[in-house]
Amino acid sequence: MGHRGDTASCLPLLLLVLLLLAFCRGRVVRVPKGPLIRVVGTEVVIPCSVSDYDGPSEQNFDWEFSRDTDFVRIVSTWDSTFTSEEYQKRVGRGDIKLRRSSNDAVELVIRNIQPADQGRYKCSTPSTDATVQGNYDAEVQVKVISDGLSVSGSKGRSSMPLRLSEGDSFRLRCSAVTTSPEHTHLHVTWQIKSGSAWRDILSLTHEGKFQPGPGYEERYRNGDIRLDTGANDTYRLSVSQASSADGGAYRCLVSEWVRGADGSWQRIQEKSVEIASVSIQRTALDVVISTSNVSVTERDSLDLTCNITTDRSGIFQAEVMWYFSASPDDTLADAQLLLSMDRDSVVSDSTLISLSHVDRNSYRLLVRDVDVEDSGYYFCEAAIWVPLHNGSWHKVVERTSAPVSVVVTALEPDYDVFLNASKTPKFSDDPTELHCRVTNAQDTEANLRFAVSWYYRQRLRSDDVVADELLATMDADWTLLPGDRSRERIQNGEIIFSKKSADTFSLRIQWTSESDRGDYFCVVSAWSRHRNNSWVKSKDVTSAPVNIFWATQDYTLTVEAVKLKPFFVAGHTFEMTCKVSSKNIKTPRYSVLITAEKPLTDQSSPNGTTRIISLNQDSVVRLEDWTDQTRVDGVVLEKVQENEFRYRMYQTQISDAGLYRCVVTAWSPGGGGMWREAVNGLSNPIQIDFQTSGPVFNVSVHSDSPTIYQGEVADLLCIVTMEGMALEPDDMSFDVSWFAVRSFALDREPILLASLDRRGIVTQSRRNGSSDISLERISPLEFRLRVHGCEDHDFGNHYCVVTPWVRSATGVWQREPDIRAKPIFLSVKMDVLNAFKYPLLIGIGLATVIGLLSCLIGYCSSRWCCKKEVQETRRERRRLMSMEMD
C-alpha cells in the first residue's frame, strides 16, 4: 500500500516536468562558434540570426564590442544614436556597417580590420515576445593575426610575354609561402583571362586535392594540363598541345584557409599575381582542289588533285581525306568518305578509286569507270600533325576545301514510243484498251530496262490549261504504283495495267464512263544497270496522245399512269398501271416506286407525300412507309411487261384518298456487273376520292378539377361528339391516344402517356416517377385518363387524339382521319401541411430521446464518477449535520 501511494504522489511531479519542457521554448540568438581567426587588413563578416520569437517577422539587432570586461556599442539596425563616440567615424565612413540578409538575420561587416579590433563581439535582439524566454544575445571571440602570406612569380617577375605556335607546350611557375602564427593551409589556383573575366584552369585545394576548372576536365584526365609542386614553395602549371583557346593572361591565385572551432574550413585572405601573357600563333593551312566544276561522260575516268599549303616550319606530317556528297551543304558527318592517306602515307583500300601522293603538297584522286551515281560534290580535308616531346603526334590544324561539282553524263539509249488504241468505246461502259510500244531501240542488252507511266489529260472546249493526271507507273522492277485518280478503280479491277512483252505495255479500262473521255499518253523511261547493280533512269520519251471520245445523247424517260376503273367506292380494290418508255439508254431496266400525296390533315405524313411500295430493277418488292399491320397484304406491285407495271390496293379506306403516282428510275449496266442509275421519271397523278355523307366527329377534353395537390388522382375525360348521320354503337369504334406537353406553352415535343385501340388493348409508355396512369372507356363516346399519385412533373398541357373507325354497308371497317382535341392544362400543387408533418414529428421525437439520454448520462456521472474515495467518520458526519442545522 505504501509503494502504491508513492507512485501516485510522483505522477503530478512527472506531469509538471513534462509541462515545463513543453513550454520552455523561447527566443534563440546564434553567432558563429569562436574564436574567429582573421588577418589584419582584411574584411570580416560576422553573421547573427534569431529564431523561435514572437512579434513582427522583421527583427532588430544591436552589436557591441569588448576587449576586457566592458562592452562598447558599435551599431544597431533600429537606433541611429546607438553607436558610441569611438565608432561613429568608422560607421559614418562605411568601414563598419550592418548588412541584413533576411528578416531574422544580419551580418556585421568590418573593413580593414586591425589588431585593436580583436576581442569579443556581442549580438543582441530587443524583446518582442509576450514572455521572456530563451536567450537575447550571443558572443563570439575574434582573433586578429598578422599578414604572413606572400605570392610572387618566377624569379620575382610579375608578368612575362610568351609567343607560341599552335600545338606547342609551355610551363609557368609561381611561389607562395606563409609565416602565419596559426596553423593555416594554402589553396593555389591557376587562372586565365581571355576576355573580361578570369576562368579557373586547375587548383590544388587547401585539402590537398587537384580540381580542374570548367571545360578543363578532359584535358586534365589526358595529362595535357598538370600542376606540380617544387622546391622553395613553387607551383608549376604545365600545358601541352596548346590551342588558340589557351591564349591570354595567366595568374596565380592563392588563398589562406584555417579550420574553425566547429571543424569547418574558413578562408581568411586571398592574394594573386599575374605570371605571363601567352599568345598562340595559329597554323595557316590552305586546301584547294586544282580544278573547278567537272563534266565527265559515263564509263570514263575522273581525275582530281588536292593542293595544300602551310606556313608551318620544322617537322610535321600531312593527312588527306577525300569525301563525296550529294549536296554542297552537307557536313562531314553526312558525307561519304572515299579514300584517306594518313600521316605515314598509308592509303585505305578501294577497287575503283586510287589516291597517290604526287609531291609534298599535292594529292591526286583517280576514279575509274564512273557512272551516273558518281555525280555530286567532291572535296578533300587535310590536317597537319606535329610530334610532341613524349614521342606522340598532335593534330594542330585541319581544313576542308571548297566542294567541286562533278556531273557524269549518261550514255542515253536511242528509241521511239508509239501509242495506239486497239479498242475504243461506242457507248458508255464499253471497254477501252491502249497499247504503248517501244520501237527502234538501239541498245536492248541486259543492262537496259524500260518502265512506263500512263497519263490522262481532260479535253476542254476552251483554251484553259489542264494539268496531266498520273494514272499509274510501272517502274524498272515492273512494280505497279497507282496514281490518286485511278487507285480505287485499280483495286476494284476496273482498270488493268499489264506488260504484253519486253517492249509493249497495255492499259485497259473495263467499263469506260463519261469521266474517262479525254487524251491519254504514255511516257517510257530507259533504266540502265550500274556497277553496284542499281538501276538509274537515263532517258524519258513521251508518246503522241490518243483521244478517247464517243458521241452521246441525253437520256429520255416517259412514264404514264392509267386508272383501270373509272370510279369505285370505299372497300373496293384500286388498280392502276404505269407504262414506261425510254431513249438513248443501253439495255435499260426500271425500278418503280408508288407514292401517295395525302391531304395535309393526315398526321402520319406531315409533308403530304407517302412512299407506299417499291419494285427495284431486280424485281424485288419492298414495303416502304406502309405500316398498317392489318393491311400488310393490302397493296401489290408487280411487273406485267418489261416496260409496264401494275399497282393494286385492296379494301380501300377513306383515309387512302389522295393523288397516286409512279416514280420510275432507269438503270443501265455498269462496271463489274453493277447497275448504274441513268435517269428518273415521274408519272401523271391518279386521284382516289370518296364521296361520303357519313357523320362528322369532334373531340374535346374535360376535367372537373384541373388543379390538384401532390398525391391526389387527376381525372381527364376525352369526349367524342357526332354531327350529321347517326350511327349505331356497334358500327363505330375509336383509337384513343393521350399526350402531354410538359410546359405552360406548347413549345416542347408531346409525350405519349397511354393509348387504347379499338379492340380495347391499352398500351402505356415507360414512366420515371412514382405516379401511375390508367386509361378506360366509360361510355361509347367517353374515355377517361386517370393519373394516380400525381407528382410535380405530371403538370402540363394534356390532350387526346382520336382515330374513328366506321363500318360501311358492305361490312368493311373504314378508318377516318385523326382528330386532335384542344389541350387542357393540369396544375399540380404541393400540400405544405402533409409535406412537413412527418419531418416535424421525427424532429420532436429525436429531440425528446436526446434530452432523456443527456439526463441519464448526467445522473450516472454524479452517482458514480464523482463519489469520494475517502470514507467519512461518524463524527465528521455528525459535525456536518450540525453545520447544516445551523
Shape: flat
The share of residues in extended strands comes to: over 45%
Structural class: mainly beta
The major β-sheet equals:
8 strands, mixed
Alpha-carbon Rg, integer: 57 Å
Terminal CA distance reads 39 Å
Q: What proportion of the residues is helical, as a percent range?
A: under 10%
Overall pLDDT metric? 83
The CATH superfamily of the largest domain turns out to be Immunoglobulins
Total count of helical runs of at least 4 residues: 6
Number of strands: 61
CATH topology of the largest domain: Immunoglobulin-like
**Unreliable spans:** 1-24, 601-606, 868-886
Transmembrane segments: 838-859
Main location: membrane
Signal peptide: 1-26
InterPro entries: Ig-like_dom (IPR007110), Ig-like_dom_sf (IPR036179), Ig-like_fold (IPR013783), Ig_sub (IPR003599), Ig_V-set (IPR013106), IgSF_V-set/TM_domain (IPR051102)
In summary, what is this structure?
This protein is mainly beta. It is 10% helix and 48% strand.
Overview of the molecule:
Residues 12-133, 166-274, 285-382, 413-542, 695-803 form the Ig-like domain. The chain is mainly beta and 886 residues long. It has six domains: 28-145, Immunoglobulins (Immunoglobulin-like), CATH 2.60.40; 149-281, Immunoglobulin-like (Sandwich), CATH 2.60.40; 285-409, Sandwich (Immunoglobulin-like), CATH 2.60.40; 416-548, Immunoglobulin-like, CATH 2.60.40.10; 556-688, Sandwich (Immunoglobulin-like); 696-832, Immunoglobulin-like. It is built from six helices and 61 strands. Strands 51, 53, 54, 55, 58, 59, 60 and 61 form an eight-stranded mixed sheet that branches. Mean pLDDT is 83; it is low at 1-24, 601-606 and 868-886.
